[in-house]
Amino acid sequence: MKNLYQFSALDKKLTELEFPAISGKSGFQPIRIDFDAQKFQRAVREGKIRFGNDGIYLTYEGREWKGYMYMPTYRVSQYGLPKFHLTRCEKIQELFSSGYGQYYKWSNNKLNDIIERGTSKIYKDQKLSLCSYCRHAIIGVNNTEDFFRTLDTEPKEEVVSIEVDIFGYVKDWQKISIAYRKKKECTCESCGIKPKNNFDKRFWHTHHLDGDKTNNKEINLECLCVLCHSYKDLKHEDNFDKTRMKKELDSFVEKYNTELKSVNNSYLKTYQNGRI
Question: Residue 111: exposed, middle, or buried by beta-carbon count in 10 A (0-12, 13-18, 19+)?
């Protein structure tokens, strides 16, 4: 495993996953870390790697760094440049399941070097395209340069106080949510269905992609029907298992069962099998 960049606040306990000790300035720092399949599995088990809805998070010393994964060695001459991955998509799941052989790199950089497999030719500073299976991850992100623009790369010089309610939402959240859903014509950005009437718009929610309820930038929002929203991650599955939310979900599926089948909603069968 090679340390290709210097960065801060990560100078303890890095030997747990064979990461080198690192030093540098505070604030955002570019990072690249190599993972073979076994180290990747271990990092996930130990909570060093977390799959978010908007990126793959690397954790050290209580601090999370948002990034992505890609294959640094690839048959570029045969297949073109490798894709990068923001979620636990089919390709990343292959790495997680295999246990051997595959080799990936975690990065939060705008550009990356790719090595031609077999000849070791280096393609310097390449912009990688997003994996087709990860297209739903962040609206407007198609390549690593787009992703880099979503990162907070500026050091925080002051802490801004934000007024939130008991659930962590900002004071004007309802207005923000309604405005966003209206802009998206109340269309689920996951399965594509729309409400039959104004009263049913209550079944459409505005979701925070990064889980931060105070981050209401449009790039961080997603309009979802209640079924798609309920399966975004384990936290949402737990929330929708509660009585009030479960009744809302049950009512929606009963009323929109035909429409959900017509768009091949990927969560309908899971719901019908009783996971919620």
Answer: middle
Distance between CA atoms of residues 5 and 12, nearest Å: 16
Start-to-end CA distance of the chain, whole Å, equals 42
Q: Classify strands 63-70 and 56-60 as parallel, antiparallel or unpaired.
A: antiparallel
Q: What is the pTM of this model?
A: 0.49
**For residues 30 and 109, is the Cβ–Cβ distance under 8 A?**
yes
Among 153, 186, 163, 72, CA closest to 120? 72
Among 199, 196, 191, residue whose Cα is nearest residue 267: 191
The pLDDT of residue 16 is above 80: no
Question: Given the structure tokens 């990747």, which residue do they identify?
Answer: 40
User: What tokens appear for 268 in the block?
Assistant: 């309908």
> For the chain, what are the domain ranges?
14-150, 173-272
Residue 148 has pLDDT above 70, yes or no: yes
pLDDT, mean over the chain:
78
Does the pLDDT of residue 77 top 90, yes or no?
A: yes
How many C-beta atoms lie closer than 10 Å to residue 224's C-beta?
24
Tokens found for residue 96 = 């997680």
